[in-house]
Amino acid sequence: NNDDELNKALATWAVSHNISRTACNELLKILKQYTSHNLPTDARTLLKTPRKTQHISKICEGEYLYFGLNDIIQKMLLKDNNTYVNLLINIDGLPLSKSSQASLWTILCSNTVNKTVYLVGAYFGYKKPTDSNIFLRALVDDLINFTNNGYIYNESIIKIRLFGLICDAPAKSFVLCVKGHTGFYSCTKCVIKGKYINGRVCFPYKKTFPSRKDELFSANTYQDFQIGFSILNNIPGFLPISSTPLDYMHLICLGVVKKIILLWIKGPLNVRLSISSINKISHLLILLKNSTPNDFVRKPRSLKDVKQWKAIEFRNFLLYTGPIVLRHILKPDIYLHFLTLHIAVTILIRSNLNEELINFAESLLNHFVISFEILYGKQYMSHNIHNLLHICSDVRTYGPLDNFSAFRFENYMASIKKRLRKNEKSLQQLYKRYNEIENCNSFLSSINNETLNSYKYLHNNGPVPDNYNIQLQYLMMSNEKFNIKCKGQNNNCCLLKSGQYVLILNIVQKNKDFLLIGKKLKYIKDVYESPYKSSDLNIKVMTVNNDSIFSWPITDLLGKAWKIPFGNHANTFAIFPLNHT
Ligand SMILES: [Zn+2]
Hints:
Blueprint: H1 2-16, H2 21-34, H3 43-46, E1 57-59, E2 62-66, H4 70-79, E3 84-95, E4 103-111, E5 118-125, H5 132-149, E6 151-153, E7 156-166, H6 169-176, E8 195-197, E9 200-202, H7 214-218, H8 248-266, H9 275-287, H10 311-325, H11 332-349, H12 355-376, H13 383-387, H14 391-398, H15 407-419, H16 426-447, E10 454-459, E11 472-478, E12 483-485, E13 493-496, E14 501-510, E15 513-526, E16 540-544, E17 550-553, E18 557-565, E19 572-577
Parallel strand pairs: 3-7
Antiparallel strand pairs: 1-2, 2-5, 3-4, 4-5, 6-7, 8-9, 10-11, 11-12, 11-14, 13-14, 13-18, 14-15, 15-16, 15-17, 16-19, 18-19
The structure holds zinc ion.
Protein name: DUF4218 domain-containing protein
Organism: Camponotus floridanus
């Protein structure tokens, strides 16, 4: 009934905007006073906050809460009815405050079909769990059970397996019981021995290095690398080396990209930029705020804040803004080197990957690593730079980089962390917030038909092609992936399935069909031509063809693009298709 829907809608609003209990109670009071709706008086009733917390156990000098995989697998199957579930597990430590050592160690879960994230378990303590095998015990038991027996759903047996374990380097060394990423033999993928240069362990380029083998790892044979036996090895089908891919969020965005920017700011003289060059880049980045599509949660910031940049800001710099703001400012060889990484990652992030493209990206990354040593120096050949040599073999197993990146888990934990109000009773709070979020998610998935386009903001202002008998005109269209807004300049540049870039000026309904009305963009030149032509990646310098207006069926739409002002001409833009997910 109506009041029930209102209750759910209010709960969803309160949870998604992280409304405090006091504020929510006051709103309920007002609504009860001035309307006749049947509403609860207490926010906890509205949000279905559990009154009691599931059993919290004491392990490893801390507290531990385990939700288990059973309910999660069921929710996954409700979303995508499949004959198998390939689980992705993320384990990470999260400091809870700057003032104390309090931290959460979470176990999160997702799968290869859907990017939704679930909480499997969490540990709270004032240091990390003393024994990773005790911390992992419940998870490993669950995984062994479901891998061996499958999951019964709609009277059939669904195959379950742990497909990938996605962790940053410290978490990976913790759960796999191997030496930390500062050790001489710390590469998880090969047996290269690091060198000690200028106070740190570095990995100068070497053409061949034997890969680590899953069976040798499981047999605990890497004495200089393994410091114990991880019970993860007991999970059937789990390969300790191949099933723990390198995550590009930590490795490339927070690792390599951040490192090279910091070297431009305060590295060796041959690569360091002058203060005026840094200011110029910052100025250009800030200008790009005005053209940023709403698909980006964070707008470009000055290089002065680079230490505070989040992973997605480094990603956006690498994929979109860097090639524009660095042109004619970096020395040609340094710029070309940056483009090598930009092109390789742009290729590896896209869904149209094939073996030939992966091989090409791999050769670019190989070249990037060799040149890095020459341009920046041996002493900066870190663990992350070295690991660029390995990431393509993970792409061969897992597909495009975002299929196995930590982004979805990181976003999820950021939203959870925001909801934990005090440092005390963190697991109790976590339990309650998780249940509130899950209640709302089940409500949202019951009302959302995500595959449909929706149209908003009727108007009568055109433009409409001559001789068109138009019923309705709209300013905005949205679907589950993005929205297009005809007003303004930032959210109307689109790529059609034909490969044509267009500017959408109107969205109209003609009979039962929806049409996009707009202008075509015309190719002028490539944004860069070496080491690979940007137009081969669909990145082009273009201008708006001012003469005529065209219409295209809405089904021709492929995706959005970022239209970045280019050079000094008012009507000239660098066009980047949006590829990140
Ligand atoms: Zn290696």
